[in-house]
Amino acid sequence: MAQARTGTGLWISWPPFTKVPLDAPAEDIGALVLSALDKTTYDVPAPNFRTDPMPITPVLALAGVKTWGAFVKGTELVGAELDDGRLSLVPMVNRGSRRGFDHPDAEQIVRAAEFDPATIGQLLKDLFGAPVRPGGSSTS
User: Fold this and answer.
1) Residue 39 pLDDT exceeds 50
2) Structural domains counted in the chain
3) What are phi and psi of 23, to 5 degrees?
4) Are the C-beta atoms of 72 and 34 separated by less than 8 Å?
5) Cross-strand partners of 89
6) What is the pLDDT of residues 74-133, one digit of tens each?
7) Is residue 124 part of a domain?
8) In which domain of life is the source organism classified (predicted)?
9) CA 1 → CA 16, 32, 139, distances in Å?
């Protein structure tokens, strides 16, 4: 999934929404990550949370659940961030349905030295199942 930033600065989930098994070839996973990053969008209208579908709804559907609480339970999340041409893979801390996901210790962020899909995919695969330590930005 890509992300979009609204004019008010809120980041929301954004198409394309894809699902790939973790046992897929690393090159395929890395290519999807690079494609999603390429589709990052800025200055989209903020959704009306009273009338519009929730931006996370397509992700819930792909996961086969109907609620955020069901989605978060047992979920591992690794974010991909592209900043000034540097790619970082960020294994997020799962803090439950009320608090969502949070950044880890800075040492746990993996920076990819190259934009090779197979390398990125393998780095991502290696992060799943690894323990994640909470960063200092949130209270426990």
Assistant:
1) yes
2) 1
3) -90, 5
4) no
5) 80, 110
6) 899 998 988 888 899 999 989 999 998 988 877 788 888 778 999 999 999 998 877 787
7) yes
8) Bacteria
9) 5, 9, 28
Which of 46, 50, 58 shows the shortest CA–CA distance to 12?
A: 46
In the predicted structure, residue 9 carries a pLDDT above the cut 50: yes
Assign residue 21 the CATH number of its domain: 3.40.1590.10
Nearest CA to 91 out of 73, 70, 105 is that of 105
| Residue whose entry in the numeric block shows the structure tokens 């950044």 | 103
Contact 7, 23 (CB under 8 A): no
Which residues fall within 8 angstroms of residue 108, CB to CB, at 6 or more apart? Answer: 90, 91, 132, 133
Q: Bridge partners of 3?
A: 13
Sign of the CA dihedral with 45 first, then 102, 114, and 56 last: negative
What pLDDT score does 107 carry?
78
Quick check: is 89 in a domain? yes
Q: Is residue 137 part of a domain?
A: no
Question: For 45-60, how does the pLDDT look when each residue is reduced to its tens digit (9 = 90+)?
Answer: 999 988 988 888 999 9
- The domain of 10 spans 2-129
- In 64-132, where does DSSP find H-type helix? 68-72, 117-127
Nearest CA-CA partner of 13 in 79, 97, 83, 109: 79
